[in-house]
């Protein structure tokens, strides 16, 4: 890795699984409604908000648990840069769409919970992951309203995103951190069974996708798949979710 790529890697959050969760609900809300130019700066602000929160929480976590004082300090500059860009770009959006302030306020409790887990150095905890998916999926409703549609029209797709990404959190843990935990795997399979039923009742075309999710939760743990392979499977399923939602 050259010096430029190494420097960039310190700025870009390394939680690769989060990118689909950031993009898919937002894209679904954008294209289920009427795509407008305002969606572009809103999406940039959404990514900036994620990067700002990531570096702030890493700084908080490392200040408490790391013996190396420089470990926490390397997150200060990215945090200040992303936060400044977020303020500069986000303020005009709030002026144009004052109701976005309500969306920001609604996300703050979830941000507070994630920050508390970071403070305790438990950011990989299951509850923390499940909490994080709620505001991410709720961006579907925000994007839908920016497109001129009432948020209530998007409650079905929002629920589908919650079901899918909740299952992803469980499945990925069963493949990596909890790969030797048989009870966790059984819990993941049980969740996917319930999610399949709920998704089918919600919108029958979702049944095929959630059946695939159930199969991968039941069959893939314990097979020694590489992390890259696990990620590629999730990219494919996330794309299938978006396609299915756009045909909602």
From TrEMBL:
Q: Does the keyword Membrane apply?
A: yes
InterPro entries, A to Z = YwiC
Spell out where the chain crosses the membrane.
Answer: 12-32, 38-56, 76-94, 100-119, 126-148, 154-172, 193-219, 225-247
Q: Which domain of life is it from?
A: Bacteria
Recite the UniProt keywords alphabetically.
Membrane, Transmembrane, Transmembrane helix
Glycoprotein listed as a keyword: no
Q: What is this protein called?
A: YwiC-like family protein
């Amino acid at each position: 890795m050259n010096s430029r790529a190494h420097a960039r890697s310190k700025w870009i959050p390394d939680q690769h699984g989060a990118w689909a969760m950031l993009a898919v609900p937002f894209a679904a809300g954008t294209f289920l409604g009427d795509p407008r130019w305002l969606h572009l700066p809103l999406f940039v602000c959404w990514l900036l908000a994620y990067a700002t929160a990531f570096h702030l929480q890493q700084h908080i976590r490392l200040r408490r648990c790391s013996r190396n004082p420089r470990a926490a300090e390397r997150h200060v500059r990215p945090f200040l840069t992303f936060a400044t860009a977020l303020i500069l770009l986000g303020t005009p959006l709030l002026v144009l769409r004052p109701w976005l302030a309500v969306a920001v306020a609604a996300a703050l409790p979830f941000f507070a919970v994630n920050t508390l887990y970071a403070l305790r150095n438990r950011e990989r905890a299951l509850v923390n992951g499940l909490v994080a998916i709620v505001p991410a999926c709720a961006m579907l409703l925000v994007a839908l309203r920016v497109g001129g549609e009432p948020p209530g029209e998007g409650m079905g797709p929002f629920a589908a995103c919650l079901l899918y990404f909740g299952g992803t959190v469980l499945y990925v843990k069963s493949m990596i951190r909890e790969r030797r935990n048989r009870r966790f795997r059984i819990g993941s399979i049980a969740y996917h069974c319930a999610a399949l039923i709920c998704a089918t009742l919600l919108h029958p075309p979702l049944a095929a996708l959630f059946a695939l999710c159930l199969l991968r939760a039941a069959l893939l743990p314990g097979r020694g798949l590489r992390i890259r392979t696990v990620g590629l499977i999730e990219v494919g399923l996330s794309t299938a979710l978006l396609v299915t939602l756009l045909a909602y």
